[in-house]
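Hey L., structure's done. Input below.
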Amino acid sequence: MKEPIQEYAKIGLVHFMLWKDCIKGAGDPSTVNTILDDPYFGAVEVSWINDDAQRKAVAEAIRRSGKAVAFGAQPVLLTQKLDINHLDENERRRGVDAVLSVIPQAYELGAHGFGLLSGKDVPESNRDRAKEQLVKSLVEIGRELGNHGSTPLVLETFDRVPYGKNCLIGPNEEAAEVAREVRKSIPSFGLMIDLSHLPLQGESAQDAWAAAGEYVVHAHMGNCVMEKPEHPMNGDEHPPLGIPDGENGVDELADYLKVLLDGGYLSKARKPFLSFEVSVFGDLTQQQVIEQSKQTLDAAWARL
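Output:
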């Protein structure tokens, strides 16, 4: 493509994955300015910030930048080992309440999307019941989001492998079934696909889009390492794109972008979120990972 990809999407970065000291709602959230100050990016994804003064400062920095922001509630669930599709109603309730508690933060930060993930996978005999629990939770969370404003709820699809996140959702075909059910009550609900997760899901970009493309409202770019227990980033750890032993580099990203473009996700009219979700690895600094990510995306986009 001769036109820059920024003509077709808001290129973003998941802040709390690159600065993992922020993943538990603490750390130094002012590092978000690294993304806000970079003209390559039109968006940033943040999570909970439990210090009121720090959160206010980040909200103001985002507002001044004019860039789009999405809120990720995945860390709220993962770091506290909470499960919104738990078969035990008390455990499900704990997960939902934790998500509800950060909705005001998302609105304070100006979020244009609110992402989360399903809980743990269960034996196949219990999956239908777990999906019912998940739908119930998503409808409740989506309604509470609607009580505060118009930020849409987004479910990110993950893997079911034991060395990954081992989540209920899971396969994109089943994600589409959940989305279809949730939209009966929450029409703005959608799905997030992530290039990092596709190898772990055993799906190609084409497979994922064919199964769930009509519900996809958010997309991530990244990498993973599979079936290498000795590797420090084995599983769903979001290493930089193109590292040795990783599954995704320029070729895979180019294929992913073509699917998103041909499927109508990448659009000059809408300019949806398309964010890197990568973390530091080895001796690389955050800035080096950012630069390497941008170079990989530019190279992949040039192939289309």
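The chain has one domain: 5-302. Strands lie at 10-13, 43-46, 68-72, 114-117, 153-156, 190-194, 216-221, 273-276.

-- N.
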